[in-house]
Write a structure and sequence with these properties.
The complex is a heterodimer of chains A (136) and B (136). The radius of gyration of chain A is 21 Å and the shape is elongated. Chain A has a domain of 92 residues. Chain A is α+β, with helices and mostly antiparallel strands and 136 residues long. Chain A is built from 2 helices and 4 strands, in the order H-E-E-E-E-H. By secondary structure, chain B is mainly alpha-helical. Chain B is elongated and about 65 Å long. Classes of the chains: A alpha+beta (136), B mainly alpha (136). At the A-B interface, helix 1, strand 1, strand 2 and helix 2 of A face helix 1 and helix 3 of B. Chain A: One of its GO terms (biological process) is bacterial-type flagellum-dependent swarming motility.
């Protein structure tokens, strides 16, 4: 039934977008973490979205899934702080490669997409309910 | 007699089915608004409806092996599969062609039309009920 598939599709989008929001939260929280369990500064993380078909007969109609999480490979930010215990001989410490401005933009984009998917679900729910009342 | 009732409702039945399919297709576009490389899809409602109606007129007859069997016509449900890629209004660098404004407008438009089809169908049913009850 087509309209029930909408719940699967929009539901998959909700999961994926909330995963993206989680990653943004983790990136922003760790924007100043000069060291982590690996000994290196924290690297920004991003979700990779992939379209996944929900029904076999229409492969182009797809939900979305987070298939992997990649670490940002851009260079670390260098900060001059000679008194810091992690500073190198020139007085610089490596800081995470997280750009808070980009993260905020990413957060807004993720939350807008989440809201739209919720709206889609609500509309599908209304349509289904009205269909169930057909002929009454 | 049941054939006639079924014929009476056939147009809106087909139309409603296609509208539900369109909800699904657009929900898929919205869900994949942030998926790199995803191409937005849609189908031509008018053409699909004409195809469905043509197919339902040359419907499937029930096989009879005895003259006392009831003759009945079923409607062949064809999957038109006429999904086409939308041409991008503003192509983005990641290869995604979903334009959120276009999709939201199409979704709302489609939901409204689904509801109007439901209203028409409801009126047809109440018309039939009136005829059956003979104005009592």
């Amino acid at each position: 039934m087509s309209l029930s598939n909408v719940f699967n599709i929009a539901g998959s989008a909700l999961t994926a977008q909330s995963m993206r929001l989680n990653l943004v939260a983790s990136n922003i929280a760790n924007a100043e973490s000069a060291t982590s369990s690996t000994g290196e500064p924290f690297r920004g993380r991003h979700a990779v979205f992939t379209a996944t078909p929900v029904t076999a007969d229409m492969p182009q109609v797809a939900g979305v899934r987070v298939t992997s999480i990649v670490e940002d490979t851009s260079p670390f930010r260098l900060k001059y702080e000679p008194g810091h215990p992690l500073a190198d001989e020139r007085g610089y410490i490596k800081m995470p490669n997280v750009n808070p401005v980009e993260e905020m933009a990413d957060m807004i984009s993720a939350s807008r997409s989440y809201q739209t998917s919720v709206e889609v679900m609500n509309t599908a729910k209304t349509l289904l309910q009205k269909t169930l009342q057909l002929g009454q | 007699m049941l054939d006639k009732i079924s014929d009476h409702l056939n147009f809106f039945q087909q139309s409603l089915g296609l509208r539900a399919k369109k909800v699904e297709v657009i929900a898929s576009n919205i869900a994949n608004a942030d998926t790199p490389g995803y191409k937005a899809v849609d189908f031509d409602f008018g053409k699909a409806l004409q195809g469905q109606l043509r197919a339902s007129q040359s419907g499937l007859a029930l096989a009879t092996s005895n003259e006392r069997h009831l003759a009945a016509q079923g409607h062949a449900s064809v999957d038109d599969g006429g999904l086409q890629y939308r041409s991008a209004v503003q192509p983005s660098l990641d290869g995604n062609t979903v334009d959120m404004d276009v999709e939201r407008a199409a979704f709302t438009d489609n939901a409204m039309k689904y509801q109007s089809t439901l209203t028409f169908l409801n009126r047809r049913i109440s018309g039939l009920m009136d005829a059956i009850k003979g104005g009592q």
